[in-house]
Design brief:
single chain; alpha/beta; Alpha-Beta Plaits; 2 domains; five-stranded mixed β-sheet; three-stranded mixed β-sheet; about 10% strand; elongated
């Protein structure tokens, strides 16, 4: 026998103490969703960013081909193209990932590959800025500035990725400009530092803007889900309400007809519920309904639907369910409700029972109105037969009228 205690202090489970080890390792769901969206935006820009950077690298090599040793240029360009090929594979792997629940590993990959790319461009800066005359060096600085600006637009949704790219890149370029220590390179170093500062500030503000948009989007989605849930569920027992049940019933029946699957519908009418209300008050009645809803949830699959149709009437919709299982579910629910005892204030022991009707349809012969009518009639028969029992009936498919019946109907009209 199951005994459930009720105290005046109220209802609800007592939460277990949080495990500090889990609190440190489990990501915040809100931050996780925002980071996943940021990754999608960054990786969505990857092909265009990589193509633009590779083109800039090729143009730079072509311009410096006569001033820098060919082997150095080709080795740098080959390394750049290989790295971009690996980064493109990284982008494709992210897009093909079936489901990302923890984005931290992908953020780490992105930062490592971005740092490698920035380091390679920085190495190019330390080599190329020491060759050629003024026009060549000015053009090299211009190309580097364009790459840095282009990376900012691509990494705009994720500040961490842009920092990982820009830090090694511009640090090496800045050191190279300062190392020359000439009337030309000193102003270039100052201008480059100002440019980097502006890029960093722009990236930071862009990251903040994306964060605000993502936060608003996530909050709107959360609110929409909450409103939809409230519209489709009974607030007292947290089961599907009557309207949503009817919608799901039609969907299940249509799917059963198309897929040639059996289905079943269970109607549950509580017995002695009025006595619970009379003896313990409406609070006891509400608690009894909540406990019955928990029993229903324990006996259904994830694909089944348990609903409160109103008052003390419940229903269970079983798609793709043969007769044997439907009857087993109904009898299991009946036994659990019969064994249920509510220990209420003042030493009251309150009990309810149930009368259950089961309507089933064989493969491909389901009809919503027939299931509803037969399940209701079976439940009514169980109550009239003495309550506390299950009655099972087949919901026969609609009969096609004969030619003579059709002619008689036409004559009557």
């Amino acid at each position: 026998m199951v005994r459930i205690c009720q105290t005046p202090a109220g209802l609800g489970r007592v939460p277990r103490a949080a495990d500090p080890r889990l609190s440190c390792s489990a990501p915040d769901p809100a931050l996780t969703g925002a980071d996943i969206e940021r990754l999608r935006l960054v990786y969505g820009n990857f092909p265009l960013m990589l193509a633009g950077s590779a083109t800039a690298g090729c143009v730079l090599v072509a311009l410096l081909y006569e001033t820098v040793p060919h082997g150095t240029l080709l080795l740098w360009l080959l390394s750049l193209l290989v790295l971009y090929g690996l980064r493109l594979l990284e982008c494709l792997a992210f897009r093909r990932a079936p489901g990302i629940r923890d984005p931290r590993a992908w953020i780490g990959r992105l930062q490592i590959s971005a740092a490698a790319s920035g380091l390679l461009w920085g190495i190019g800066g330390t080599v190329f800025l020491g060759h050629g005359g003024l026009p060549y060096q000015l053009f090299t600085v211009l190309v580097f500035s364009g790459v840095a600006a282009g990376a900012m637009t691509s990494y705009g949704a994720m500040w961490r990725g842009y920092i990982s790219f820009l830090a090694p890149f511009e640090a090496l370029v800045e050191l190279r400009l300062l190392f020359e220590h000439t009337p030309l390179h000193d102003p270039l170093a100052v201008i480059n530092l100002l440019f980097v500062s502006v890029m960093l500030y722009s990236a930071f503000k862009t990251d903040q803007a994306f964060g605000n948009v993502l936060a608003i989007t996530a909050e709107n989605a959360k609110l929409t889900r909450a409103l939809q849930y409230q519209a489709t569920h009974d607030p007292l027992v947290d089961l599907v309400n009557h309207r949503e049940f009817n919608t799901r019933l039609i969907d299940v029946v249509d799917g059963a007809v198309i897929g040639k699957h059996p289905c079943a519908l269970i109607f549950i009418d509580l017995d002695r519920f009025k006595e619970v209300n009379d003896q313990g008050g409406h609070a006891a009645g509400d608690e009894a309904l909540r406990r019955v809803s928990l029993i229903l949830k324990e006996h259904i699959r994830a694909t089944d639907t348990a609903a409160r149709l109103g008052g003390d009437e419940f229903a269970i919709l079983l798609p793709g369910c043969p007769l044997e299982r439907a009857e087993a579910v109904a009898r299991g629910v009946l036994t659990a409700i019969h064994d249920f005892v509510l220990h209420w204030e003042g030493g009251l022991y309150l009990r309810v029972g149930a009368s259950i009707g089961v309507a089933y349809a064989v493969a491909g012969e389901a009809e919503a109105s027939s299931l509803l009518r037969v399940a209701d009639a079976a439940c009514y028969a169980a109550k009239n037969a003495g309550r506390g029992r299950v009655i099972v009936r087949r919901a026969a498919p609609p009969r096609e009228p004969s030619r003579f019946e059709i002619e008689a109907l036409r004559r009557s009209v």
